[in-house]
Amino acid sequence: MISGSTKLKGPAGMSSAVKMTITAVLLIAVIFIGIFVFAKSSENKRTERLNLLLAQVEDSTAKAIPTNEDDAAILLRAGASLTTKDNREAIYQRLLVAKGDGTNLDVQIAKFASDENNEMTPDIRIKFFQVIQGRRSSDALEHLINHARSARFPETATAALKATEKIATDRDAPALLKIIQFTNHEEVRQSAKHTISSLASRSKKRDALAVALRNAYDTATTDNSKFVFIELFGSAGGDDAVSIVAEALKSKEPKIRLAGIAALGSWADDTEFETLLDYMADEDNDTLRRRAFDSSFQFLMIDRKRDEIDLEDMWKSLAHEAQTREEKGQIVTGLAKLIDDWAFAVVEFFLEDEDDKVSYRAEKALENMEDRRQRLNPDGGKNDEDEESEKNEDEDGEGE
Questions:
Q1: What pLDDT is attached to residue 1?
Q2: Per residue in 280-338, pLDDT tens?
């Protein structure tokens, strides 16, 4: 039996606190639904915009496509997302050919790719660095170098440095030398070395580079960094470099001698080529002698303006130092694309080699060289003066 003093409360009898709680819950639900709908709508708009942006590179010849900051942000976020699959390469291509429309895209792309707070897998970050490498803008340098200094993954640091290789300037040398000095990863150290070597070949201030390099060398804290600094003295050149490399070649430590050999093989001019040949002739260690030969060969393959007579003398000198089948083959291969008379003479030197494989290789090379000369010079190499002389002789003959 129910007491008369007890009453059941229906909805109309809910307390104010309960009503307020229900109202708050409903309001929150409405807000979340609104946020979800808005986010979904925004995502749909971004997807629609992304598709329009990617449609612009369906034409493989498209380039310098105007791109604003918002569009670049859409491309970058999409490119970094793991959910992006089929369109990833198109995104990279679209960024590669983008032209800033009121914004510095090179800074925007480099800043996004270099910032490890922007989470992405290392291989995706590397792809972004390859885009930056393709764009070749010095505006990206600061972010690339900063990433190389502090990256969690050595492979992304290496990719960032590779992107700097063709655009780094003299003012970047100190920062790159610090990377060589303090990195714990040899692949990163080597990448920084390649960048400095590349900028040295373009530099108009090699003296300043040599000073910075000497300071780094004098304060080297590890053997590995010291070896790299010795190698880089070749790219800088100069009297200071000559003395340091000469000392390295006298060292009892093979690794130091190897660094000296590498330095001579990348020397800034041709002045130290004879030094490398002399060292090779005196070196008793077969491994080091072989490395010196390789370094000499690589030196001659450097694309550099040289006097024709000097070039001939250098190739002949190296040819006389060739001892093994591989070394003789390198000489033949190195000259196979030349059509100068002296190049033929050097290759002919190996026709009578006691190693049949060497002589056969020389024979085939000479045939290819002759074919190449005929294609490039079908008139037999006559220049304007020769033709004018023949014309005058013909006229004189007719007069008689």
A1: 44
A2: 999 999 999 999 999 999 999 998 899 999 999 999 999 999 999 999 999 999 999 89
Task: Provide the angle, in degrees to the nearest 10, between the axes of the packed helices 325-335 and 308-321.
Answer: 160
**pLDDT tens digits, 89-100:** 999 999 999 999
- Alpha carbon separation from 314 to 105, 109, 260, 311 (Å, rounded): 47, 46, 20, 5
Q: Which amino acid would we find at residue 155?
A: E
Burial of residue 328 (CB within 10 Å: 0-12, 13-18, 19+) is: buried
- Per-residue pLDDT, averaged over 127-134, amounts to 98
The tokens for 213 are 């390099």
Segment 91-116 mean pLDDT:
96
Cβ pair 203, 209 in contact under 8 A: yes
- For residue 11, give the DSSP letter: G
Structure tokens at 396: 């004189």
Largest CA distance in the chain: 153
Cα 158 from Cα 186, distance rounded (Å): 10
Q: Please list, in sequence order, all residues whose beta carbon lies within 8 angstroms of the beta carbon of residue 127, skipping any fewer than 6 positions away.
A: 79, 88, 92
Nearest of 155, 99, 96, 172 to residue 128 by alpha carbon:
96
Angle value at C-alpha 68, between 67 and 71, nearest 5 degrees: 80
Interatomic CA distance for residues 130 and 124, integer angstroms? 10
- How far is Cα 355 from Cα 363, in angstroms, rounded to an integer? 13
Residues ≥6 apart with Cβ < 8 Å to 295: 261, 262, 264, 265, 276
Residues 44 and 77: beta-carbon distance below 8 Å: no
User: How much is the CA Rg of the chain, to the nearest whole Å?
Assistant: 34
How many Cβ atoms from other residues are within 10 Å of residue 311's Cβ? 18
Phi and psi (nearest 5°) for 98? -70, 140
Q: Quickly count helices (H) and strands (E) in the chain.
A: 20, 2
pLDDT in tens, 22-75: 777 767 766 666 565 544 455 668 889 999 999 999 998 999 999 999 999 999
Closest CA to 338 of 383, 296, 308: 308
